[in-house]
Design goal:
Strand content: 5-15%
Distance between the termini: 57 Å
Largest sheet: 5 strands, mixed
Strand order of the largest sheet: 1-2-10-7-3
CATH superfamily: Cytochrome P450
Structural class: alpha+beta
Number of domains: 1
Helix content: 40-55%
CATH architecture: Orthogonal Bundle
CATH topology: Cytochrome p450
Number of strands: 16
């Protein structure tokens, strides 16, 4: 390591994650950072936290803000997604959105999710192979959320395109590239214009889709404004699609690399839900999250100044040996799959139930129908992201796909 590299590493311990060579397996780096304990950069602008205990404390600490800056928003700033708000604004918006994401509402989607998965497997049988990302993991969540929102079926690919462009700028790699940021802003504007027209229609016509529910949702006289609706829809679309795609892909890859676990799930389909939780623990779609210290505080033995951005290494916390035995092993025999993949505290993922349902259906139907599956490791390409982890391409071969 050169002197310049050492200085960069001290200023930002996460800088090594930008190395493309780390992308296939960042976990040795996360382990090393976790073992060093909480670290604060020399200028106090960044703190990194990796143990499960410390991450959990920060996620529940009211002194830790989800806002990107301590500076107040300008009066003409557009409404923010509740992901980047603190109470009481976050509490109000989240409570309104949660009214549409009830367990009963999510459970009603199970037959449709199963149909989409089976159709994808039928198509793979006809082709004699499939790309697990492009043919299954990516189309499923964008189709489900699009149909639930009441978007015309033919517009699903359009929404997926906007989502992928926007997501690139949400990752540190993309955020550092001007062209990526500009493309994301344009995609965000087109997405807002598209849903602005749909909202106008739903405001005039009664409907049963999720968008209609969000338009009508109300509590104690509070409703979502048009700006808040657009910010919320963008969050549901981008976060729900991108992270669920990676959850499915990461889980299938882990089991394909551990055929004994695949066989265990095939023999006992009731383990599908545990397979989802173990995937979230073992190879989480969201590797990092951030909080902003609003007051001087102490995390572990580290003194964190007010204004410091605290990077929570969820991927490291989920494999903390203080919490899990053999944390680097994927095992469906693991009964305690405690993880922070959906965050914790006030910002626990509002769409967690839907993501879990989609992944469980995929795991159950895949193991029941696909005979002797084998991933082509040479085809495996990871997305060029640091935070949102998952394959971009992953080819699968098999001997047959059973018909029901």
């Amino acid at each position: 390591m050169t002197t310049a590299d050492a200085a960069t590493q001290q200023a930002n311990p996460l800088a090594a994650l930008f190395d493309p060579g780390v992308r296939a397996d960042p976990y040795p780096l996360y382990r090393a950072l976790r073992e060093q304990g909480p670290l604060v950069s020399p200028d106090g602008s960044l703190a990194t936290v990796g143990s499960h205990r410390d991450c959990l404390r920060v996620l529940h600490d009211p002194r830790m803000s989800n806002r990107p800056s301590l500076d107040p928003l300008p009066p003409d700033a557009p409404p923010q997604s509740f992901l980047f708000l603190d109470p009481p604004d976050h509490t109000r918006l989240r409570s309104l959105v949660s009214k549409a994401f009830t367990p009963r509402a999510v459970a009603r989607l199970a037959p449709r999710i199963t149909k989409i998965v089976d159709d994808a497997l039928d198509a793979a049988a006809e082709r004699g192979g499939m790309d697990l990302v492009e043919d299954l993991a990516a189309p499923l969540p964008i189709t489900v959320i699009s149909e639930w929102l009441g978007v015309p079926t033919q517009d699903g690919p359009l929404l997926r395109g906007w989502s992928e462009v926007i997501t690139r700028a949400l990752d540190p790699v993309g955020a550092a590239d001007e062209q990526t940021v500009l493309a994301s802003q344009q995609a965000g504007g087109e997405l807002a214009a598209y849903f602005g027209e749909l909202i106008a229609v739903r405001s005039r016509e009664e409907g049963t889709d999720l968008l209609s529910q969000l338009v009508r949702v109300e509590e104690r006289g509070e409703k979502l404004t048009i700006g808040e609706l657009l910010a919320t829809i963008g969050l549901l679309l981008v976060a729900g699609h991108e992270t669920t795609t990676s959850l499915i892909s990461n889980g299938l890859l882990a089991m394909l690399r551990n055929q004994a676990e695949l066989d265990r799930l095939r023999a006992d389909p009731s383990l599908a839900e545990r397979a989802v939780e173990e995937t979230l623990r073992y190879d989480a779609p969201v590797q990092l999250t951030h909080r902003l210290a609003t007051k001087d505080t102490v995390i572990g033995s580290a003194e964190v100044p007010r204004g410091s951005m605290v990077a929570l290494m969820l991927a490291a916390a989920n494999r903390d040996p203080e919490l899990h035995r053999d944390p680097d092993v994927f095992s469906l025999e693991r009964e305690d799959t405690t993880h922070l993949a959906f965050s914790a505290g006030p910002h626990y993922c509002v769409g967690a139930g839907l993501a879990r349902l989609e992944a469980a259906v995929v795991f159950r139907r895949f193991t029941a129908r696909v005979v002797r599956p084998e991933v082509d490791e040479s085809s495996l390409v990871y997305r060029p992201h640091i935070n949102l982890r998952g394959p971009a391409r992953m080819s699968l071969g098999f001997s047959a796909v059973r018909r029901d």
